[in-house]
Amino acid sequence: MTVTDSTNEEEYLPNSDRLPRGEVPDEAERIARSLELARAAAETAAENAGREIVVLDVREQSTMFDFFVLATGSSRRQLHAMSEEIDHKLEDDLKDRRIGIEGYQESRWILLDYGSIVIHLFDDQSREYYSLESLWADATKVDVSDLIPAEQLG
After folding, report:
1. What's the pTM?
2. N or C: which end of the chain has fewer CB within 10 A?
3. What is the Cα–Cα distance from 100 to 124, expressed in whole angstroms?
4. In contact, 110 and 75? CB cutoff 8 Å
5. What 8-state DSSP symbol labels residue 153?
6. Closest to 113 (Cα-Cα) out of 32, 33, 1, 14
7. Three-state secondary structure along 75-105?
8. How far, in Å, CA of 92 to CA of 131, rounded?
9. 112 and 122 in contact (C-beta within 8 Å)?
10. Is the CB of residue 81 less than 8 Å from the CB of residue 57?
11. Whole-angstrom Cα distance, residue 10 to residue 25?
12. Listing from the earlier edge strand, what are the strands of the sheet with 117-122?
């Protein structure tokens, strides 16, 4: 990727890679930070009545992302609440920064992009239709049963 002078090259770096010049994150530290964010997002989704919560380790399948967090909500209001609370947890409490958000207005599939992790919040129909677990079937499921009640896990 070529970065022009008018573009801040940090816009293209995952949040965990945004360090002062000269500091390179240790790979293990970077992965640990990504996992911390993914687990916090999953736990926050559960606290907001999310269902079928899954954390996928996609490092072997993607060079751009480390983890996907998937959750299902039962209404537009619930999906909004989940996305806002996840933002609050990751940005305010864990000091990370969301790069982008898609689908908030439509509220059928809300995507929160935090660079190294991507959070997918679905309504029931979109979750079934897009079936990301099937698309990313080679990804490894991360065990989050210590954070989330069994009835909320996917």
Report:
1. 0.81
2. N
3. 23
4. no
5. B
6. 14
7. CHHHHHHHHHHHHHHHHHHCCCCCCEEECCC
8. 31
9. no
10. no
11. 14
12. 100-102, 109-113, 117-122, 67-72, 51-57, 140-141
pLDDT along the chain (154 residues), means of 10: 37 46 72 96 96 96 94 96 97 94 93 96 96 92 90 85
CB 144 within 8 A of CB 43: yes
**Tokens 């916090």 -> residue:** 40
140, burial (CB in 10 Å: exposed 0-12, middle 13-18, buried 19+): middle
Say how far apart CA 31 and CA 142 lie, in whole Å: 13
Task: Give start and end residues of each alpha helix (H) in the chain.
Answer: 27-47, 76-87, 124-130, 132-135
Return the number of other C-beta atoms located less than 10 Å from residue 130's C-beta: 15
